[in-house]
Amino acid sequence: MFKAALTGFLTGGSLILAIGAQNAFVLRQGLLRAHVLPLVLLCAMADAVLISLGVLGFGAVVALWPALPRLLSLAGAAFLAFYGAQRLVAAWKGDYALVLRGESAGLWKTLAAGAAFTWLNPHVYLDTLGLIGAVSTQFHGGGAKTAFAIGAITASFAFFFSLGFGARLLAPVMTSRRAWQVLDLLIGAVMWGLAAELTRGAL
């Protein structure tokens, strides 16, 4: 049981550490200290659902619907391109004054964006339904598979809570307009890069 749980934790942790649109969004919200708890819960719980489905063998659904990865890639690319453009415009305009006044997106708008970053990201499905599901096949029996899933889910919760609330440690650095412009520029570049990668893979 312990070996299965540890394998799940290490597998889930190694996959989720890769920089991506969802992680960049959580980091930015953490720096803003805006709706961090609901957002990290949303991201971690979405991972928990997908990991559970992956371990249960949901990969068979993708095999039955080969067009699904392509559709998800195009939808995700469109969303990433739109959000990336927003961040690049913010970097150019320097919206730091808005941040100082504490003005940020509302809870539901933040959660909607977080959900889009999660569910419209094909890599999430590849990692959770595909890779984690594939690794789980080495364990036999309901108990071992459950322990593996719990380990992977624990890694997801640990990562998102550390990213969201740990971002506050960077708050003293983010006290200038220039720092926020650089952050928005980097996030926008990451979004556009991911959008281009998804589009190339789908076409």
From TrEMBL:
Where in the cell? Cell membrane
Which GO cellular component term is one of those annotated?
Answer: plasma membrane
Its main localization is membrane
Q: How does it sit in the membrane?
A: Multi-pass membrane protein
Domain of life according to the entry: Bacteria
Residue ranges of the TM segments: 36-64, 71-92, 112-135, 147-167
Q: Which InterPro entries match?
A: LeuE-type (IPR001123)
**Keyword Transferase on this protein?**
no
Recall the GO molecular function terms of this protein's record. Answer: amino acid transmembrane transporter activity
Record's keyword terms, sorted: Cell membrane, Membrane, Transmembrane, Transmembrane helix
Which named protein is this?
Amino acid transporter
> Lineage of this protein's species?
Bacteria, Pseudomonadati, Pseudomonadota, Alphaproteobacteria, Rhodobacterales
Gene from which the chain derives: lysE
